[in-house]
Amino acid sequence: MNEEKLCENIVYARFTWPGNDEKYVCLMHSLKLAKLAEIMGFYLQIIPLKLDEIEDKHCNQYVKTS
């Protein structure tokens, strides 16, 4: 059975998916989100964080576990 948990990677950037609040993502997920937005035909602004913004943030994407 597959379950989902929050990604544990270090946060890299922030973004706002249309219709949602701002969220944070790791580098891997930011690349995947950018590609998905491109496929869907719209621009998604992904803003890299400064070092002092990273401390208390976590990637908001879910990953499957086995």
Largest sheet: 3 strands, antiparallel
The number of helical segments is 2
Instruction: Specify the overall morphology.
Output: globular
Supply the number of structural domains.
Answer: 1
CA(first)-CA(last) distance: 6 Å
What is the ordering of alpha helices and beta strands?
Answer: EEEHEHE
Query: In terms of per-residue confidence, which ranges show pLDDT below 50 for 5 or more consecutive residues?
Result: none
How many β-strands, per DSSP?
A: 5
User: Approximately what portion of the residues adopt beta-strand conformation?
Assistant: 25-35%
Which class best fits the helix and strand makeup? alpha+beta
Determine the mean pLDDT: 90
Widest sheet: strand ordering: 3-2-4
Question: Gyration radius, to the nearest Å?
Answer: 12 Å
Helix content: 25-40%
